[in-house]
C-alpha cells in the first residue's frame, strides 16, 4: 500500500487522537501542581470543615479562625513582655486529618457535640503583669487584699452628713441592727436605744458644753451636732491623725489625743498640734483630763500638764522620784488636790500640794501591798465621793479616803466581778449618770445602782459586747463599742 493511500492516513490520525486523549487523561488525574509554600508571598490557609460547612482557615499566627461545633479553636501563644514568664512553643502535631491547623489537634466533627468554649484566662494576681491573648479581653489585676479587716460599715467620706432617718449607718429603734444575734438571727433595736450609729471602733466619747458630741475612733473623729453626723478622717484630709485615742474639753476648745501627738481645735476644722517640742512627755497620748483649770495629759512616757503660757510641764519618773513605777499612763484623773494615774503597775496618787520630787507626795496602790485585785488599771472615775477602778479582774471601789491613805491608813476595797452580776470581769469604761454608775465590760454593759447590778447584753440591743467607752450627756448614756456608737435613755430601760 502506498504512503498516500487512504488506509495509511486513517491509521495515522487515529493513533494521534489516542495519544492526545491519553495525555489529557493523565493530566486530569494528577491535578494542578501545588503552590510554592517557601516563597512567603501567600500564606497557606487550609480549609477546616465542620457540620455547618467550610470555615475560614487561620494564618500561622492563629488569628481568624472561628470555632464551630466539633472544632477546637486554636490558642495563639501570647507575646512575652517584661515580668511575664516564657511561654513554651506548641510543637506541630503528627500528620492528622486534612484541615487540622498547625500545632492544634483536630477534633472529629460531631453534630451532637456542643461548641467548645474559649479557653479560660487565669486570674492575674496583684503586682503581676496581665497576659493578653489575641481575640480575648485582657484580665485586670485583682485588687490587693486589705491589710486589716474592713469594718462592718465603713465611715462615710469626710464632710458627708448623714441624717438619722434609718439610712445606713444610722439605725433607729425598731429597725434591724447590722450585727446578727445568736445563730445569725437579726436583732431588733429596743426603744431605749434612741440612736444607734455603726462606725469604726470607738475609743472615747465626750459631750461638749456647746451640745456637740465628739467620738474618738480607730479611723478618726466623729462629730454629732443636732441631727447631723460628720466624720473626719486622715483619708479625706479633714483630720491630721490616723486614729483618735482620747478626748477632753476646756470650755473653749476640744483636745484630741492621738499616737502622733496632741491636737487642739475650736471649730473641728482647724487643728493645732502639740508634741515633745512643746513639753509633752511623749507624742503617744493615752488619756486626757480637764479639771476645770488645768489640762492633764497621760502619755507613753509619763504625764504632763498645760501651763498658762501654753506650754506643757512634764511629770515623769525622774521628777516624781520613782512615784510612777511605769511611765505609761493609761488612765488619768485630777480629783481635788490629788492626781490619780493608772498604768499596769497599779494606781499612783500624787498630792499636788507637795513637789513631785518629794517621795512623801506619792503613794502607789497595787495588788502586792494594797489588796488591789489587779495591777492593770483600765478605767478610772470619781462617783459619789468614791474612787472606782476598772481592771481585768473586776470593778474595785476604794472605800478609804485619800487623805487617810497619806496618813498611813490601809486601803479598803469592794469588788464586783461576774459572780456579783457583771457581764464580764474585764472592766474597760466607767461613767456616772444621776444615781447610777455605768460599767462597760468586754462582755457587755452593766449598771450599778443602790448596790444592785443589772447586765445589758447584745440580746438587749447592745450593738457589740465589748463596751470600750462611756459618757454621760444630759439624760442619755453614750456607749461606744467595736461596732459603733449608741445612745441609751435609762428612763426607758425599766418600762
Helix and strand arrangement:
Elements: H1 6-30, E1 48-50, E2 53-55, E3 161-162, E4 170-171, E5 176-180, E6 186-188, E7 193-198, E8 202-207, E9 213-217, E10 220-225, E11 228-232, E12 246-249, E13 254-258, E14 261-265, E15 272-274, E16 285-290, E17 295-299, E18 302-306, E19 312-315, E20 331-335, E21 338-343, E22 346-351, E23 362-365, E24 379-383, E25 386-391, E26 394-398, H2 402-406, E27 413-416, E28 427-433, E29 436-441, E30 444-449, E31 452-456, E32 467-473, E33 476-481, E34 484-488
Antiparallel strand pairs: 1-2, 3-11, 4-7, 5-6, 7-34, 8-9, 9-10, 10-11, 12-13, 13-14, 14-15, 16-17, 17-18, 18-19, 20-21, 21-22, 22-23, 24-25, 25-26, 26-27, 28-29, 29-30, 30-31, 32-33, 33-34
CATH class label of one domain: Mainly Beta
Q: What structural category characterises the helix and strand content?
A: mainly beta
By CATH, the architecture of one domain is named 7 Propeller
Mean pLDDT: 73
Rg of Cα set: 42 Å
| Sheet having the most strands | 5 strands, antiparallel
Task: Summarize the amount of helix as a percent range.
Answer: under 10%
Amino acid at each position: 500500500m502506498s504512503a498516500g493511500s487512504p488506509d495509511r492516513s486513517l491509521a495515522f490520525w487515529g493513533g494521534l487522537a489516542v495519544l492526545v486523549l491519553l495525555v489529557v487523561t493523565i493530566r486530569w488525574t494528577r491535578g494542578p501542581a501545588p503552590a510554592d509554600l517557601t516563597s512567603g508571598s501567600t500564606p497557606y490557609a487550609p480549609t477546616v470543615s465542620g457540620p455547618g460547612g467550610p470555615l475560614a482557615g487561620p494564618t500561622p499566627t492563629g488569628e481568624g479562625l472561628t470555632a464551630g461545633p466539633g472544632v477546637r479553636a486554636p490558642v495563639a501563644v501570647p507575646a512575652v513582655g517584661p515580668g511575664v514568664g516564657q511561654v513554651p512553643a506548641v510543637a506541630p502535631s503528627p500528620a492528622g486529618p486534612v484541615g487540622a491547623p498547625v500545632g492544634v489537634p483536630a477534633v472529629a466533627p460531631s453534630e451532637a457535640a456542643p461548641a467548645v468554649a474559649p479557653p479560660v484566662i487565669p486570674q492575674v494576681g496583684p503586682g503581676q503583669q496581665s497576659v493578653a491573648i489575641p481575640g480575648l479581653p485582657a484580665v485586670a489585676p485583682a485588687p490587693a487584699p486589705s491589710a486589716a479587716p474592713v469594718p462592718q460599715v465603713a465611715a462615710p467620706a469626710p464632710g458627708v452628713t448623714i441624717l438619722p432617718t434609718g439610712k445606713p449607718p444610722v439605725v433607729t429603734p425598731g429597725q434591724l441592727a447590722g450585727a446578727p444575734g445568736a445563730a445569725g438571727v437579726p436583732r431588733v433595736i429596743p426603744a431605749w436605744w434612741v440612736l444607734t450609729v455603726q462606725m469604726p471602733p470607738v475609743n472615747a466619747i465626750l459631750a461638749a458644753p456647746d451640745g456637740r458630741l465628739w467620738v474618738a475612733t480607730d479611723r478618726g473623729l466623729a462629730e454629732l451636732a443636732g441631727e447631723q453626723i460628720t466624720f473626719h478622717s486622715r483619708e479625706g484630709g479633714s483630720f491630721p491623725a490616723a486614729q483618735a485615742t482620747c478626748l477632753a474639753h476646756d470650755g473653749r476648745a476640744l483636745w484630741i489625743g492621738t499616737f502622733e501627738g496632741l491636737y487642739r481645735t475650736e471649730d473641728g476644722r482647724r487643728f493645732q498640734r502639740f508634741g515633745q517640742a512643746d513639753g509633752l512627755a511623749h507624742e503617744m497620748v493615752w488619756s486626757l483630763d480637764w479639771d476645770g483649770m488645768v489640762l492633764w495629759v497621760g502619755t507613753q512616757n509619763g504625764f504632763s500638764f498645760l501651763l498658762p503660757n501654753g506650754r506643757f510641764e512634764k511629770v515623769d519618773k525622774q521628777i516624781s522620784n520613782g512615784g510612777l513605777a511605769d511611765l505609761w499612763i493609761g488612765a488619768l484623773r485630777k480629783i481635788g488636790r490629788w492626781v490619780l494615774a493608772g498604768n499596769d503597775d497599779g494606781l499612783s496618787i500624787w498630792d499636788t500640794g507637795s513637789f513631785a520630787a518629794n517621795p512623801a507626795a506619792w503613794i502607789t496602790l497595787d495588788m502586792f501591798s494594797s489588796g488591789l485585785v489587779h495591777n492593770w488599771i483600765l478605767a478610772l472615775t470619781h462617783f459619789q465621793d468614791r474612787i472606782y477602778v476598772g481592771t481585768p479582774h473586776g470593778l474595785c471601789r476604794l472605800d478609804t479616803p485619800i487623805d487617810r491613805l497619806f496618813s498611813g491608813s490601809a486601803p479598803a476595797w469592794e469588788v464586783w466581778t461576774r459572780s456579783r452580776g457583771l457581764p464580764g470581769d474585764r472592766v474597760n469604761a466607767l461613767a456616772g449618770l444621776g444615781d447610777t454608775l455605768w460599767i462597760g465590760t468586754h462582755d457587755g454593759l452593766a449598771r450599778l445602782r443602790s448596790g444592785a447590778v443589772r447586765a445589758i447584753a447584745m440580746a438587749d440591743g447592745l450593738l457589740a459586747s465589748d463596751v470600750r467607752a462611756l459618757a454621760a450627756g444630759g439624760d442619755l448614756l453614750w456607749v461606744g463599742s467595736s461596732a459603733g456608737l449608741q445612745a441609751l435613755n435609762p428612763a426607758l430601760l425599766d418600762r
